[in-house]
């Protein structure tokens, strides 16, 4: 998927990888919008979501994905149980699997038919705090489960230091509000308020105060811009997601 305005990537890579199908975006729709197009264009029942700086660790990764989906017919997503960053040690590989509230997009397998039942990812340029949380709620609302398997290990080659940037701090805060508005029933909007408060407190405690005020003040405009996407999930889905997270989010 070539983002709008990128005139170099396809030109430099296509001669080296002629077997790859190239899709060029007509507008900028962020990473989520691109993923929506890629899933819709895919020809196989199972897909793997990776970032440009993440990759599977084990050679049989894709075979394990297929096996897990075939053994768990109700799973819409099977997330990697081990996502190893630059400052982390590689854990031993085990074969445990458990239910989860959401997944991380840099290391997850997707059942295409399940994803296509949802509205897909929100088209946000900075999607921290929104993309996976939103799709997860939609999948749970459609009756699918999200699993996390420690048999799937992914290396994410980043220290995550870039996440301290003020623009990411502000986007994370306003995106939490956006997901709350779009997917929470009105009676549960207080949960979203608490989530925003926790994120603000966490940012202040971890030296990320720059961007907090901007994140709070841009909430009304952010919500208004995406108001057409509002489609609340069932109350029990929000409560179940909170239970799976341990009741703290």
Q: Mind explaining what this structure looks like?
A:
The chain has 249 residues and is an alpha+beta fold. The chain folds into 2 domains: 43-156, Spore Coat Polysaccharide Biosynthesis Protein SpsA, Chain A (Alpha-Beta Complex), CATH 3.90.550.40; 162-244. It contains 10 helices and 6 strands. The protein has helices at 9-13, 30-41, 61-71, 112-115, 131-141, 166-183, 189-205, 212-217, 219-225, 235-244, and strands at residues 46-50, 54-56, 75-84, 97-99, 107-111, 145-156. Strands 1, 2, 3, 4, 5 and 6 form a 6-stranded mixed sheet that branches. α6 packs antiparallel against α7. It starts with 8 loop residues before the first helix and ends in a 5-residue tail after the last helix. The model has no long low-confidence stretch (mean pLDDT 92).
């Amino acid at each position: 998927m070539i983002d709008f305005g990128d005139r170099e990537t396809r030109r430099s890579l296509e001669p080296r990888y002629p077997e790859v199908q190239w899709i060029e975006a007509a507008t900028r729709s962020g990473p989520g919008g691109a993923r929506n197009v890629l899933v819709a264009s895919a020809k196989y029942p199972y897909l793997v979501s990776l970032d440009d700086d993440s990759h599977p660790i084990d050679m049989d990764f894709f075979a394990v994905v297929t096996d897990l989906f075939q053994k768990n017919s109700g799973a819409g997503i099977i997330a990697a149980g081990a996502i190893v960053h630059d400052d982390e040690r590689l854990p031993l590989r085990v074969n445990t699997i458990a239910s989860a509230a959401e997944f991380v997009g840099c290391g997850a397998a997707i059942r295409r038919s399940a994803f296509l039942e949802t509205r897909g990812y929100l088209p946000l340029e900075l999607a921290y705090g929104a993309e996976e949380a939103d799709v997860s709620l939609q999948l749970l609302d459609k009756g699918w489960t999200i699993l996390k398997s420690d048999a799937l290990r992914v290396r994410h080659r980043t220290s995550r230091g870039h996440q301290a940037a003020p623009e990411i701090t502000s986007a994370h805060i306003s995106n939490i509000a956006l997901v709350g508005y779009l997917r929470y029933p009105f009676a549960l909007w207080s949960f979203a308020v608490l989530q925003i408060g926790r994120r603000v407190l966490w940012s202040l405690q971890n030296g990320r105060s720059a961007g907090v005020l901007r994140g709070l003040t841009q909430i009304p405009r952010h919500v208004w811009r995406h108001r057409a996407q509002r489609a609340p999930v069932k109350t029990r889905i929000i409560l179940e997601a909170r239970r799976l997270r341990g009741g703290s989010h």
